[in-house]
From TrEMBL:
Its EC number is 2.7.1.107, 2.7.1.138, 2.7.1.94. Residues 61-201 form the DAGKc domain. This is Acylglycerol kinase, mitochondrial. Keywords: ATP-binding, Kinase, Lipid metabolism, Membrane, Mitochondrion, Mitochondrion inner membrane, Nucleotide-binding, Transferase. Pathway: Lipid metabolism; glycerolipid metabolism. It comes from the Eukaryota. It comes from Iphiclides podalirius (scarce swallowtail).
Amino acid sequence: MERIIKFGKTIRNNWKKSVVGVVALYYGAATLKEKYEINLLMRAACREAVKYGDSLIPTERNPTVVTIILNPAANKRKAKRDFEKYCEPLLHLAGLQVDVIQTTSEGNAKEIVETLRGTEAIIVAGGDGTFSETITGLLRRNDNANQFPLGVLPLGRTNSLGNNLFQGGKGVDKVKQLIEASMAIIKGNTIWKDAMKIEPLVQDGEVPSRPIYAITSLEWGAFRDTLAKRDKYWIYGPLREYASFIFNGYKESLNWNCSGVINYTPPCAGCSNCLRKRPEIKRKWSFFMPNTQTTQLDNGSIANPDCATSQEICFKTSDFRIRTRNFENTNIPSLSVVLGKNKYTYSEFVSEGWRRIQGSEENIKSIEARTVELQPKESGSEVVIGIDREEFEVKPIKVTLLPNVIKLFYNPDKAVI
């Protein structure tokens, strides 16, 4: 009893040190628990991957070759470490021949993919920016290279596509996501998704530039600008996105006045005006890539007079977005054009921003379109838009939907599609 009383007096007399000690003990125990759970996950994943590696392949062919486009600078230079720790071992155990190419600068992924040869699948190990560059390089080619499946290892700071294909999170949940993404590549289940082709509208005397391709969204306005500033509030840790809305909701430097004109054509299921037929290519490695592609009917003779009709809208808003509907159940492929409110009060802006961080947003009726021409109103200051979270200067552009042109590895049991 005396020892207990003495211990209590010591704690009371040194309460500051005691609090620090308890906090350190708690975080130490939590870290050990997390490492133990990750260990169990990796053991189970390795056992499953080995089953694929032990399976027999025909003597006349070599192991399947996959090329990894790795951005080592992604997620504050943690991407390479996480790839080597959680993804690469599984791919090797499954018997895949892995060729890792590291990007060295911005735009390097486009250059790599445009000249890539001798692979059977391309895996993007990085964030939204690396994936956007990869599909741009892939779709700029004229040799039907988009028939090769694309894998996504969500190792970046922003992983919009990866989080839709595989349930995301932090800590143990993040490792689960990486394991699931790696196993989707190993199992070989694929699905076709839409992309957006973004072309600058050429003025008289200008040299046309090459198009950019995106798979998720084009964003312009105060909400995009606020999220782009979140790293300035790193001191708030996981709450930095919430802090960004609190500290920027009143600033005039955000793009509160996005104005201009859009001309859009309605969605079309396929006709002689817009049909893009995907050629069928047979490969000797089709056993590795199960064919989920259905036979496409030749609709080139179908006439749809409404397909080429155009409508014009003048707009002024604080939130302009064009999104694919890749992760929604739709009968006809289309782009979703969202024109948000013109003015937000400070409280409305912060509360709406927080809702979006949590995965929901205000109910705004969208415009469904196949093509969209954007003519922004000229502004004296430099204005940027986000294309798959990458920043570009605002210019007159044409956005065209390309249905089912990207073939992605996915998990049919757990993917959010």
